[in-house]
Design goal:
16% strand, 390 residues, alpha/beta, 8-stranded parallel β-barrel, 3-stranded mixed beta sheet
């Protein structure tokens, strides 16, 4: 394979605030973890709130040139309209640290979590939800003046799944947490409206490229199910891609594939080859995902903001990532405008109620917080430096 991508291609890794920082006490997810759902607790996390510079340095030293992280709304605005300038300064220090280390910061403003007060007001279905998000974005934009990449909302389609399940549970419906429901369309519409309201604010306050990240299921039709695929994919993905039309880029996040038959989504078949989160081993999902976004949005620039595998076998992580990048490179050769590849994740983190799945390029001892880079980090850094997979 010839050299991968261009000289200014972003090679990096991603995290999310709640999954690594620790003690995010004002977050809705912190509240959920204390509830009767049998979830593990994030607790101290990886103490990345204090150790972010070490995490970034390990990525930079390996040869990567970008780091995606999120600002925590619950820290910035712990009560309605009461903003913390100290917390804003903390995230500005993260931006400055990344730049000093030669890492391009890719900043996400909403990564699944929001303040408890927002949840109590009805979350995304509450009165004034979009206005509340806009107020937060306006405040956060003060530190983004020299940031080149901003993601407004991470995976709104998955937010619509999770919050839709919570709405149904609040109505007294029986919810099976092991079965992934479809995104709640009404919640999805509000999230898209929030994104569309945030884009001009960020363009006015910064010189950043602004986009939203979409969770791609890389859905495929079973024989004869093409029409059903179109219906299912609209609710899962295309509605949200449509909300990105006209943006500077779209963030694509893909891990595995999902088959659709005449009845809808086909559950994944249990297999010893599946990943730690039960997904089939399908590194080709990334190529499927970016090609679909490219076709649907008429060639919009694509930034891969997440791709990775939950496994305890680091050689399997390298094999998966090598194959995913091969498919991404082929898509790029076909004309898909790929701007960067950000691996999920930089560190083994809190996987939304569970600590067992390990996605990271860096292992972390949760008692001592000692960081241990894995071979996959050195491998990805070498790919970034040489732009080859050999």
């Amino acid at each position: 394979m010839p050299e991968l991508f261009s000289d200014d291609f972003l090679w990096g890794a991603s995290t999310a605030a709640h999954q690594v920082e620790g003690n995010n006490l004002n977050s809705d997810w912190w509240l959920i973890e204390q509830g009767p759902y049998g979830l593990q607790r994030s607790g101290d996390g990886l103490d990345s709130y204090h150790r972010f510079a070490e995490d970034m340095r390990l990525l930079a030293d390996a040869g990567l040139n970008a780091y995606r992280f999120s600002i925590e709304w619950a820290r910035i605005e712990p009560s309605p309209g009461a903003f913390s300038r100290a917390e804003l300064a903390h995230y500005r220090r993260m931006i400055d640290t990344a730049k000093a280390l030669g890492l391009t910061p890719v900043v996400t403003l909403h990564h699944f979590t929001h303040p408890i007060w927002f949840e109590e007001q009805g979350a995304w279905l509450g009165d004034g939800a979009v206005d509340a998000f806009v107020r937060y974005v306006e405040f956060a934009a003060q530190i983004l003046h020299d940031v080149d990449w901003v993601c407004t909302i991470n995976e709104p389609n998955m937010v619509a799944v999770m919050h839709g399940m919570r709405v149904r549970a609040a109505r007294g419906e029986q919810i099976d947490p092991t079965v992934l429901a479809s995104p709640d369309e009404s919640i999805g519409r509000v999230l898209i409206a929030a994104h569309r309201a945030a884009v001009p604010i960020l363009h006015n306050a910064t010189g950043a490229k602004v986009g939203m990240t979409i969770s791609s299921q890389a859905q495929e039709a079973a024989p004869g199910a093409e029409q059903k695929l179109a219906e299912v994919r609209y609710l899962w993905e295309d509605m949200y891609l449509e909300g990105c039309r006209g943006d500077d880029f779209v963030g694509i996040q893909a891990y595995s594939t999902q088959t659709v038959d005449q009845d809808g989504l086909v559950p994944h078949t249990p297999s010893p080859d599946n990943t730690q989160v039960g997904l089939p081993y399908r590194p080709d999902a990334l190529g499927i995902a970016v090609r679909h976004a490219h076709r649907f949005l008429d060639g919009i620039p694509i930034l891969v903001t997440e791709n990775g595998i939950a496994t305890s076998d680091d050689e399997r992580r390298i094999a998966y990532t090598r194959e995913a990048l091969r498919h991404l490179g082929e898509a790029s050769d076909e004309g898909v405008n790929v701007l960067g590849y950000l691996h999920w994740s930089a560190v083994d983190n809190f996987e939304w109620g569970h600590w067992e799945p390990t996605f990271g390029l860096i292992a972390v001892d949760r008692e001592t917080f000692v960081r241990t880079p894995k071979s996959s980090l050195a491998w990805l850094g070498a790919v970034a430096r040489t732009r080859t997979l050999t």
